[in-house]
Structure formats: C-alpha cells, structure tokens
Design a protein that fits this description.
single chain, Immunoglobulin-like, 2 domains, 4-stranded mixed β-sheet
Length: about 160
C-alpha cells in the first residue's frame, strides 16, 4: 500500500513484496519460454524422425515419393550454348525407383527425385554422358529439399 503522504516512501515490507512479485513474473516467463522451446524441440524431433521412418518405409515398400528437386541448366562446355532436350535420369546402376526428365529448348531442367545420395546420368545426342552425384545423407536431409546444378557437357 502506498502512503497518502508522497514524501513518505514505501515501507521495507512493501518494497520486498513488490520486488518478489517482479522476480516471480520473470521466473514464470522464463519457465514458460523454456517449456515452449523444449516442447517445440521435442515436436521437431518427432516430426523429423517420423519423416525419416516414412521415407525408409517407402523405400522398402517401393512406394517412395520424390520430394527432392534438382534443377538448373545444361550447357555446352566449349561454347556455353544451351543443350536442348538433354535427358536427366537417375542412374540405372542405383536403387529403384528411377525418375527422369528432359531439358527444354533452352537447356533448363527440373527433376523431382529422392533425397538420398545417388547419381544422375545426363546425356544428349552429340555429347559425352556425364554422371553427377546429388542428394544428402539421411541424417542431414529434411523431407524436402532442392539443389541447383549447372551442367556442362563436352561434345563427342
């Protein structure tokens, strides 16, 4: 309680109560923030591990859904001109399922594939085929991702 006299300060007891209330509010805020961060971290860990399990189960049951996008442009290594209609595909020497696409008339491509590390095979008529390593290790990837790769093909 505040005294009616403005010259008279709070009593020691009132100062202590006000200080303890302030400290209690700070403590409650810290505990709430800590709990929210812990809850969010646990939620993130469960979500990430569930995604990894779904990805692994999809690989085993041959029901894997492509969630990793590799995109860029394919150019001639000597002239720098675009290589139209080049084929971009998962390397047949790797594990199925295989995904493939073709570049457009400007050499631009976008391939949706699996996030795991594997090889892509890029080929075009009149050019030497190229093998490209893409993807990320299972403990690094998120369920979705993308990678930009500019590819240079050497003429035969």
């Amino acid at each position: 309680m505040r005294s009616e006299d403005p010259e008279r300060p709070y009593s020691f007891l009132h100062e202590e109560i006000a200080e303890e209330r302030f400290e209690a509010r700070r403590l409650i805020f810290r505990w709430t923030l800590g709990f929210a961060l812990l809850f969010g971290g646990v939620f993130l860990a469960f979500w990430w591990s569930g995604s990894a399990i779904r990805f692994g189960a999809g690989r085993v049951s041959a029901g894997a859904v492509p969630t990793y996008r590799v995109w860029g442009a394919i150019r001639d290594a000597k002239s720098g001109d675009p290589v139209p209609w080049a084929d971009i595909e998962d390397d047949p020497a790797g594990n199925p399922p295989y995904f493939r696409t073709s570049a457009d008339q400007d050499g631009v491509y976008s391939l949706l594939t699996l996030a795991e590390p594997h090889n892509l095979r890029i080929s075009a008529q009149g050019y030497k085929p190229v093998t490209l390593w893409i993807g990320r290790a299972w403990f690094v990837w998120w369920p979705r991702g993308e990678e930009r790769r500019q590819i240079r093909l050497n003429p035969e």
